[in-house]
Amino acid sequence: VQLQASGGGLVQAGGSLTLSCAASGTISTISTMAWDRQAPGKQRERVATITNNGPAIYADSVKGRFTISRGNAKNTIYLQMNSLRPEDTALYYCYGYDPIISYSEYWGKGTLVTVSS
C-alpha cells in the first residue's frame, strides 16, 4: 500500500488549504484512514480520522476548523483546513489501517503546511 499526500503550502493565518491523500495497492481492506501531523520539536498528533463506519473523529485542537472526507472513489481522502493558525504549521501525514492484513499500518510521506502570522 502506498499513500501519497499532496496539497501543502504556505498560507496566511485565517486562510484555508485542502490536503489530498491517494491510496494505491491492496486497499480494499483498509478500514480506517487519518491525517497525522508533526510540528518541529513536537510529538506526532492525530488530527482527524475517518472509518468505514461511524462519524469522523477530530482532535480538540482542530475541531470545528478541519473536515476529513472521502472521495467518491474511496481511495482518496481529503482534509479541508479552514481558519488556519500558525500553530497548525506542521508536516501532515496520511495514515491507513488494515485490520485484515496483519493489522498493518501505513503512512505516506508528509506534505508541509506553513501558516504565517
Report the oligomer: single chain
Distance between the termini: 37 Å
Q: Proportion of β residues?
A: over 45%
Got a strand count?
11
Number of helices: 0
The coarse overall form would be globular
Average pLDDT reading = 94
Radius of gyration: 14 Å
Helix content: under 10%
Secondary-structure element sequence? Answer: EEEEEEEEEEE
Largest sheet: 7 strands, mixed
Low-confidence stretches: none
Helix and strand composition category: mainly beta
Structural features:
117 residues, mainly beta, 7-stranded mixed sheet, 4-stranded antiparallel sheet, 11 strands, globular
Description:
The protein has 117 residues and is an all-beta fold. Helix content is 0%, strand content 54%. The protein is built from no helices and eleven strands. The strands form two sheets. Strands 2, 4, 5, 6, 9, 10 and 11 form a seven-stranded mixed beta sheet that branches. The protein has a four-stranded antiparallel beta sheet with strand order 1-3-8-7, with no helix packed on it. Strand 4 (32-38) and strand 5 form a beta hairpin. The radius of gyration is 14 Å and the shape is globular. It starts with a strand and ends with a strand. 27% of the residues are buried. The model has no long low-confidence stretch (mean pLDDT 94).
